[in-house]
Design a protein that fits this description.
Strand content: 15-25%
Strand order of the largest sheet: 2-1-3-4
Number of domains: 2
Order of helices and strands: EHEHHEHEHEHEHHEEH
Distance between the termini: 16 Å
Number of helices: 9
CATH topology of the largest domain: Rossmann fold
Radius of gyration: 17 Å
CATH architecture of the largest domain: 3-Layer(aba) Sandwich
Length: 235
């Protein structure tokens, strides 16, 4: 079988997720070719309704189908709010697929028993908390989770006010650091706040770096299995 370069499709529901994951790939997997697929109306509808509807899942599937037809070797969903849909969607496609945050949540459960979760999208807070509990249950581990949702930070970012966005997240990090052993920033768009954080007393996990390494490893394994290995020895 002919060797080929690795191509990964990124499924976005908000523009705020795009730059953080592009930056992460440029640092941790610069040899990978990225294709971006976007439906920004998904996050607006989710914020309004708080429910992932069947119609929204179909729209996500349409993005995946377009990515697959474009010849990608794997797909990464960059919006953690839609993580619960990924297993359902992945069953319908013969292509490696990962959600933005699950690898990060597994790492958090391995690291600590008291975990702080910060989200800026209403649906992302409960979703991340539920997935953390599931990850802990799979490992037979008890965890204490403290979740904070600050939608005004997401709105500030949408309005181009990064300073306000970062300040709100910094304040919540400070609040949770007194009780939690590790803190999770639930969305890709939040990772930028760490660039302006002056100090941290507890580990803070963000999903861009972890998810890049996870999808690259997953696709590499598939490419090795099929014999489609690029010059770098994998994805």
């Amino acid at each position: 079988m002919n060797k080929k370069e690795c191509r990964i499709g990124l499924i976005h529901a908000t523009m705020n997720s795009v730059q953080p994951i592009l930056d992460a790939f440029s640092v941790h997997a610069p040899h990978v070719t990225l294709l971006n697929f976007m439906d920004e109306s998904l996050i607006f509808e989710l914020n309004e309704t708080g429910i992932i509807s069947k119609a929204m899942i179909r729209r996500l599937m349409n993005l995946v189908e377009t990515a697959e037809e474009s010849g990608v070797d794997g797909i990464l969903f960059t919006c953690s709010s839609f993580t619960p849909c990924v297993p359902q969607i992945s069953e319908l496609f013969n292509i490696p697929m990962l959600s933005a945050d699950y690898s990060m949540l597994e790492k958090a459960v391995e690291m600590a028993e008291c975990i702080g979760v910060i989200a800026t999208v209403e649906a992302a807070g409960p979703t991340t908390t539920k997935l953390l509990k599931e990850a802990a249950k799979e490992r037979g581990k008890q965890v204490n989770i403290q979740t904070r949702v600050i939608p005004e930070a997401f709105q500030a970012l949408q309005n181009g006010n990064r300073v306000r966005h970062d300040q709100l997240i910094h304040g919540t990090i400070s609040e949770l650091s007194s009780d939690c052993d590790v803190i999770i920033l639930a969305q890709f768009s939040m990772a930028r706040a760490l660039e302006t954080l002056e100090a941290r007393t507890k580990p803070i996990l963000t999903s861009p770096e972890i998810s890049v390494k996870s999808i690259v490893a997953k696709v590499s394994g598939e490419m090795k299995h099929t014999g489609e290995i690029n010059k770098n020895g994998g994805c």
